[in-house]
Amino acid sequence: MSHTPRPLRRGLSAMTSYSDLQERLASTGYMAGDDLAMALHLAQALGRPLLLEGPAGVGKTEIAKALAQILNTRLIRLQCYEGMDASHAIYEWNYQRQLLAIRAEGTTEDALFSEKYLLKRPLLEAIQQDKAPVLLLDEIDRADEEFEAYLLEILSDFQITIPELGTMAAKARPHVILTANGTRDLSDALRRRCLYTYVGYPDRETELAILNARAPGVEARLAAQIVGVVQALRREDLEKKPGTAEMLDWAAALTGLGLTDLTQDSAAVQATLVCLLKTVADRDAVPAEVMERLVGRVA
Amino acid sequence: MQVTLFPTRAAGLADRMSGFAAHLRMNGLAVGPAETAAALSALTHVDATDAAEARRALKTLLVPNAEIWDRFDALFDAYWFNAGAIRQGTANSHVRPQTARPTLWAKHFESPLETDDAHGEMAPSSRGESDEAEGTEGRLIATRTDNLTRRDLREFVDEESLRDAERAAERIARAIRDRRSRRRKQARRGPALDLRRIQRASISRGGEPVDLFRRARPDRPMQIVALTDVSGSMTLYARPFLAFVRGLVSADTRAEAFLFHTRLMCVTPALRDHDTLRAAGRLSLMAEGFGGGTDIGGALATFVDQHARRLGSRTVVVILSDGYCTGTPGRLAESLARIQRKAGRVVWLNPLLGWSDYAPVAAGIAAALPHLDAHLPANTLQALAALEPEFAKL
User: Does the predicted model carry a pTM greater than 0.90?
Assistant: First the structure.
């Protein structure tokens, strides 16, 4: 077809920016897999929100911080919770100040409902930025379904109506990232608006790269052992599998204790497991013998 | 997996992409023209001639959830590389393709067929591939114990002595329904002041807050979905349990009730019938095979596949069963996990739990336990009546 060459040329130029994005993320210490880097690239290219799902502690929240850093823009975060409503997510009038103003100066209604008395919450703040910020809606599945429905409206138009002030349209379209842990199923409508990526636990090489990037002080031998043990622990039957964040905590704990080899001091290693295993059942599931077996296999 | 052959005569990229969308639709993804257009425009932002890159771009764009995320690569290969025909095993067994999924009525039409099979020879009935996951062995057992004599359920709903069970259920239903939202809405009476409205109204009074408005937490009724096991091992309990479920359903217009043994059926309309004789007639028609084997996992999987839309964060799923199951425990755990993800609360009422030396060690119930919000005894009428405070706590 006649128009084929044009998309191809555009595609080639865009391809560099996709792997380029991956490299720039790596320079901030975030190792994004191919799938994730592609999703971020497309989210920016198409101007669509990106929905990230996956187990806890694999860096879903972290990606928003890394993105804000490479785009050199603000990160605006909205932590969702059950019962959250418009006055927490969008805006609220500062009633106390308004009352004081009425008493002290006897102001007019126009002055009373002006931006001076407006408390901006994350969503309103995000669409009022001159430079497109990264808007992180963390754990969206914790919010009520009503809020989700309202969010759909904002995500499609990027405008918010305040009855007293009028409609505020976005000055720059924010880069929206939503994360979910599977507390409840999200609506199909929201899923359709978003690009989707499942962020799983990283493989061995990626995790090693993350550890090296985040904790450069860890010796290569210890780093390989740490990653090996954590990867093996994830294959065990645990209630809460240790994520990347836990792995980094554990590495910090071990280096803090001055260990250079996991086989060196099994009592200390066992004591530091509090960084990895977060329930009583999991703690009991990994006694010293199991730990020695795991360490022995990777040593 | 439904395989769509790559159209060799396709005119161009757009044509092939719409073929891919049709292929995904046939495999149960909700992909429309908007997505096809988005996919085409996404390909202009990547190197579309690189298969791996195009795959990643389409994956992030078209996949809606984690289940399909794992399946997408197989679907992609099947269409773009014509590789699907030889890789039928790759499809995730519990995600049934939409077209292969039996419609709501299919199983009612299917039932006489099954009866014939069981009467004739002991051969397993020729059902579609959707049942393969259960394993032939499990199915045979379930078929053999399928008691297909018609049992009159009149006795189960008519008796005076069952009124107590019904009343207990009604109280519980009320306890469950009486839920408060955490969000506040404006209300005539309420514990919190609605400063926003007070302020707005005070303007017309010269800044004096004369009219006080309040905010309260509105009631958010919970919806009850009851799933009752009517297999052979539950025969003794079926009568009070059905009365109990009837109580749950009649107390709330949105409650739903299902019976299951080797199949699952919705009995809400029958239970809601005020003409008890007609209700009993309808029930006994539905409960053919009553008192046979159980496939809890299979029944729950059918429930999630077909009735998942009824579930929401304000749904309480009540399962009445003893947990003895001929299906695999893994399937039960998987279905329960899916129900738990969608529903607000999952409660299992177990008649055996009231026995003095019962421990939930049977494979089925042991696999189910991690996915339950509560596992409560229900062996006597007193135990049923005593459930009310437990439910109120949920």
Answer: no
